[in-house]
Amino acid sequence: VFYSSIMANSCRKLIFNIYIVFYCSAVIMPQICICSQFTSSPIDQFNKDPKAFPVATNGEMFPWHELRLPTVVIPLHYDLLIHPNLTSLDFVASEKIEVLVRDATQFIILHSKDLEILNASLQSEEDVRYKKPGENLTVLSYPAHQQIALLVPEKLRAHLRYSVAIDFQAKLADGFEGFYKSTYRTLGGETRTIAVTDFEPTEARMAFPCFDEPLFKANFSIKIRRESRHIALSNMPKVKTIELEGGLLEDHFETTVRMSTYLVAYIVCDFTSVSGTASSGVKVSIYASPDKWSQTHYALEASLKLLDFYENYFDIHYPLPKLGRFKFIIVFIFRTCFDFIRLYM
Ligand SMILES: *[C@@H]1O[C@H](CO)[C@@H](O)[C@H](O)[C@H]1NC(C)=O
Ligand SMILES: *[C@@H]1O[C@H](CO)[C@@H](O)[C@H](O)[C@H]1NC(C)=O
Ligand SMILES: *[C@@H]1O[C@H](CO)[C@@H](O)[C@H](O)[C@H]1NC(C)=O
Ligand SMILES: *[C@@H]1O[C@H](CO)[C@@H](O)[C@H](O)[C@H]1NC(C)=O
């Protein structure tokens, strides 16, 4: 009781500060920027003064010169299939992004950083319905802005939905951003590798081409391929696991709520877990490497108490049906404040 009342006071202050900073930087500022950004439509600009545009890696004109993405095309849903290999330390992946076109356009601009785009194609809603194959798209890359442009052969029509498919690959990143590799030592002294994501604030673009700005919210359906000695975790509970030819397993996760790209998370590792259920029914799991195992039960107990505390404090329910934590209790405290605030702003 003593512990939690101290925490309640200091945490209220902290939450208030975080709230203000976050609200200003993420909610008010981008809207100001977006409102002032578009004086004439991007296509008109391109036709009027092609010299004002940067040059893509292949020498062609890159059709967009702003750091912020155009808002002509917005994402609705991402289907991601990620296949990392913890032996070769790289991953291959494919994604389908369902987009809504708000104004007719000849290109789609996405963020992408250090990804090798293999090919991209586009289907209209009708193509999807009649299972027609997609049209191949030309992909231009402008690394200085971490952007790629998908050029379509025929103008996309306003108010229609399209499905953009992209196949790509990359090395698992060094460092602690994007989809990166990390190692830990077992008690027996063996070094093991895991693959982890950290997308905040703008590193989702290192893991998959996306509209990597907080205002472009969408739902995410994630599938991860792995070996049977590993587990895969993501934001949402697993729906099913299918066995592929050759013995690999593919985990399918439930579709997320509508959210920003930087909240997407996944991990492939060989950790083990303890789980419990908070009074609201949210399942909380603590995953840990074997050397941290002795601390997991304490972490679980504290996490369950904290979740109850936050739910009462904000008078809302944690919006996702599960909560997984990898590190220690202090991480949990801060991250949970953030998660609540973000998902409801
Ligand atoms: C699209 O590209 C793939 C290879 O990337 C090729 O097999 C296919 O024939 C192309 N389709 C069209 C319509 O050009
Ligand atoms: C890329 O090319 C391969 C081989 O032609 C094809 O099977 C795949 O569907 C293509 N992917 C996309 C996103 O167009
Ligand atoms: C990773 O590559 C190794 C061979 O280099 C292979 O044996 C293993 O099945 C691959 N794992 C996955 C998840 O693809
Ligand atoms: C996407 O999320 C919204 C709100 O979070 C939800 O209403 C909608 O059904 C979701 N869409 C899919 C396809 O799951």
Give the tags.
345 residues; alpha+beta; Immunoglobulin-like; Zincin-like; 3 domains; eight-stranded mixed sheet; 5 helices; disordered N terminus; binds 2-acetamido-2-deoxy-beta-D-glucopyranose
How is the topology of this model organized?
Blueprint (H helix, E strand, L loop, with lengths): L1 H36 L4 H7 L24 E13 L4 E12 L3 E7 L4 E9 H5 L5 E2 L1 E5 L4 E10 L4 E11 L6 E8 L5 E8 L20 E8 L4 E4 L3 E6 L5 E5 L12 E4 L2 E6 L5 E6 L7 H19 L7 E4 L3 H15 L2
Parallel strand pairs: 1-11, 17-18
Antiparallel strand pairs: 1-2, 2-8, 3-7, 4-5, 4-8, 6-7, 9-10, 10-15, 11-14, 12-15, 13-14, 16-17
The structure holds 2-acetamido-2-deoxy-beta-D-glucopyranose (NAG) (4 copies).
Protein name: Endoplasmic reticulum aminopeptidase 2
GO molecular function: metalloaminopeptidase activity; peptide binding; zinc ion binding
Organism: Bos mutus grunniens (Wild yak)
CATH homologous superfamily (4th level) name of the largest domain: tricorn interacting facor f3 domain
Classification by helices and strands: alpha+beta
Which hetero compounds are present in the coordinates? Answer: 2-acetamido-2-deoxy-beta-D-glucopyranose
Q: What is the strand content? A: 35-45%
GO cellular component, one term: membrane
Organism: Bos mutus grunniens (Wild yak)
GO molecular function: metalloaminopeptidase activity; peptide binding; zinc ion binding
Protein name: Endoplasmic reticulum aminopeptidase 2
